[in-house]
Amino acid sequence: MQRSFQHTILLIEQDKFLRRMIALGLQGQGMRVIEASSLLNAHGLEKQHPEVVILDIDGEAGRDSTLLTLVQAHPLLARLPLVLLAWEYGPDSIPSPIPVACLTKPFDARALYLDVKHALATSAALRSQVAPAPTSCPTPTIWPMVTAAGLLLAFIGLLLQLALTAIGLLIVMVALLWWTLGSRVEPQPVMTEAG
């Protein structure tokens, strides 16, 4: 049975693992995702008609603005709303006639879904020639950092457990070796006073 999707999203992300995780999450929300590592690898856009572009603008110096400029100049993508992903961004410095949402990495998946839903509403408004409601960059939440801290503590706990286990086994081995090989004491004669 083939699943039907209501909306199509173009996701351009270089990191294949992050791209796959985002795509799976969006597909779970009922969206078709066109995955690409770059704009050159985004095939079949004419047939699939994406409604929103999610774009990772991290990269080498100068590449960020070039990729954003290429997407904005593309004839099929120029009028689509953008959701930008970056470690750092300046939303005020992004020139765009189309509303742009910005997410700072690491981001909360719920914030991404909310931005995509706003972008889809903007896309629908643009198609019907209604003035879109302005979108703003969501306030980052603390939960991704709390999750990362929890994972770090769990990892440190596992390492400490392994270290303590190794030390305990080393003590047992040394004690057994010393007990079996080197602790034989010869009885010494008792001296008595003659007299």
Question: Explain this structure to me?
Answer:
The longest helix has 40 residues, at 143-182. The protein folds into two domains: 7-140, 3-Layer(aba) Sandwich (Rossmann fold); 142-183. Strand 3, helix 3 (63-73) and strand 4 form a beta-alpha-beta unit. A five-stranded parallel beta sheet has the order 2-1-3-4-5, with helices on one face. It is 45% helix and 14% strand. It is α/β, with parallel strands linked by helices. The relative contact order is 0.10. The chain has five helices and five strands; from the N terminus they run E-H-E-H-E-H-E-E-H-H.
User: How would you classify the helix and strand content by structural class?
Assistant: alpha/beta
Which geometry do the CA atoms define? rod-shaped
Please indicate the percent range of residues in DSSP E strands (runs of 2 or more): 5-15%
Count of individual domains: 2
Q: How many whole angstroms does the radius of gyration measure?
A: 30 Å
Give the strand tally: 5
Q: What is the terminal separation in angstroms? A: 109 Å
